[in-house]
Design brief:
Rossmann fold, single chain, six-stranded parallel sheet, 16 helices
């Protein structure tokens, strides 16, 4: 039973605003929270505030009545009109990111708020002590304006559980938030363009090599080995990528390493697919192989066998959620290979894995030794495991 229905609050919220002003993957992982909120408040009207160009990942979501888009760097006049549009229009704001801006939006929009607070990463104890004091000071005003907050835990708490916990205060027993299967809702798919659809002639595997940042990359020669092996099984290989220049170049670099026979089995869709179209493509695949990026989360949400290559990022925090999982934590912090539901996460060796740094040099353009040591044979074995499972079904 939730507090709104039990009389601990005056009424159930009639209008709720969800706020996720970050990247596509951060938006997608709010969908279990939205679904659970719908169970709590079946008659409420849900709106969603996020960055322009990032909300296609929610296309067709049956629980959201309206989308509100904003720039990732609004100018003063955009802030002004957005604040007028939001001002006290909602009974509850659910702030799913710890940024100051997200909290300001929640403060302007709603009478009550719940929100995610910045956490305290592991590391040097003395440094963490100083950081904790600073973050506690930064979080103080956010706690003050909220009826309930949840702190990020980058190593032990999965991001889906983090979002779901924002509803804890509306239950008499907070564990009730997690007592049913939890799933991520993918966007409704759009038809593939004929130029792509007409090339799909046989069983295919979707491969997504490009992450948002370089330190999550897998070596080029490894992609060459994997794609060559996949084509050798008689499957088509569909390379996907965002329209970003570095992702388009990465796909071109991979294609340049392939021999003529392998190239006959490869379709390059780099930059040609919208997010809903990517969902359509992935749903028809035998399997998906990708790095730590938003499209990998989309693949898992589409219930396709998903093989995710993880380096510095803790899978226990941001591993693709296996749909239907019951509980708070599907993954362990470190394992060379772990499979839960339709998701297999692979990690390289090393006691430092995962470090949650930006690669070995802790900067965006760094390499990551753990990914350098995650060999193609390990990925090929994971694909073979998928093949065996499908044959047994």
């Amino acid at each position: 039973m939730n507090l709104f229905s039990s009389g601990a609050s005056n009424s159930k919220p009639k209008k709720v605003l969800f706020i996720a002003t970050r990247q596509i993957g951060d938006v997608l992982v709010t969908t279990p929270l939205i679904s659970k909120a719908r169970e709590l408040w079946p008659d409420a009207e849900f709106h969603f505030l996020g960055y322009r160009g990032k909300l296609d990942i929610l296309k067709g979501n049956p629980d959201i009545a309206r989308f509100i888009e904003t720039s990732d760097r609004p100018k003063l006049n955009e802030y002004f009109f957005l604040f007028i549009r939001l001002f006290q229009r909602y009974d509850l704001a659910i702030v799913t990111q710890p940024s100051d801006r997200s909290y300001l939006y929640g403060l302007v929009a709603a009478f009550r708020r719940v929100g995610v607070l910045s956490g305290h990463p592991q590391g040097d104890a003395e440094l963490n002590k100083a950081n904790k004091i600073k973050r506690d000071q930064q979080n103080a005003w956010k706690k003050f304006i909220c009826i309930h907050t949840v702190e990020v835990d980058y190593f032990s708490q999965h991001v889906v559980a983090e979002k779901m916990r924002l509803l804890e205060s509306f239950y008499l027993n907070s564990e009730d938030v997690f007592n049913h299967p939890i799933s991520v809702t993918p966007p409704v798919g759009d038809p593939l363009t004929p130029v792509i659809a007409n090339q799909l002639r046989s069983t295919y595997v979707v491969v997504h090599p490009g992450p948002l940042t370089a330190y999550k990359r897998w070596p080029l020669a490894y992609w060459q080995a994997l794609v060559t092996w996949l084509a050798g099984q008689g499957w088509q290989v569909v390379l996907s990528a965002s329209p970003a220049k570095q992702d388009l170049q990465l796909n071109r670099d991979i294609l340049s390493l392939l021999d003529k026979e392998t190239l006959e089995h490869v379709i390059d869709t780099a930059g040609m697919l919208s997010i809903p179209q990517a969902g359509t493509l992935i749903r028809g695949a035998l399997a998906y192989v990708g790095v730590d990026t938003s499209i990998t989360h989309l693949a898992a949400a589409c219930n396709v066998p998903t093989i995710a290559l993880f380096g510095p990022t803790p899978p226990s925090n941001f591993g693709p959620w296996p749909n239907g999982f019951v509980g708070k934590q599907p993954y362990t912090l470190r394992a060379r290979s772990q499979t839960v539901g339709n998701v297999t996460i692979l990690q390289g060796p090393g006691e430092c894995v995962p470090c949650r740094k930006a690669g070995c040099d802790d900067r965006a353009d760094s390499h990551s030794q753990c990914l350098d040591l995650l060999e193609p044979a390990q990925v090929i074995e994971a694909v073979n495991a998928v093949k065996r499972t499908l044959q047994e079904q």
